[in-house]
Design a protein that fits this description.
little secondary structure
């Protein structure tokens, strides 16, 4: 189905591997992946944000060898 945009759109930044799609798509496959460990409320984006965090503990232990394999997508 085609997309009908009926309201305002705000895209402030799309990096080199980012994707913005309007309309029909069969499959969107990532070309690269990244894993980031942040605390509570550390990666919030948007207008007029308010976060209240008493304590934040982030477990960065990762026993996996490969989290997201994208070798076939390039």
């Amino acid at each position: 189905m085609p997309s009908f945009i009926s309201g305002p759109i705000k895209i402030t930044h799309v990096s080199g591997d980012g994707t913005v799609n309007f309309g029909d798509v069969l499959q969107i496959a990532p070309k690269s992946t990244l894993k980031t460990n942040t605390g509570s409320g550390g990666s919030n984006n948007g207008d007029f944000l308010q976060t209240n965090t008493f304590a934040s503990f982030t477990n960065t232990n990762d026993p996996d060898v490969a989290d997201s394999n994208t070798a076939a997508n390039n």
